[in-house]
Amino acid sequence: MRIQLNGQGYEVADGIQTIAHLLEHLNLGQRVVVVEHNRKVLQKEDHPQAVLADGDVVEIVHFVGGG
């Protein structure tokens, strides 16, 4: 399946069916992130139920500390 991830085309590997799976695949599962799925900002508890489909648009923002 193909989605748009942060403005770029992205081929989703087999077995990645939800936003939670995608975050784990991208090694972002333990980080504080904000996810927008098809123009809807998701709460963290919604990630396991947010099912991906071909053509979906996903934006992921993660925070970087610094000084």
TrEMBL record:
UniProt xrefs under InterPro entries: Beta-grasp_dom_sf, Mopterin_synth/thiamin_S_b, Thi_S, ThiS/MoaD-like
Name of the protein: Sulfur carrier protein
Organism: Lihuaxuella thermophila
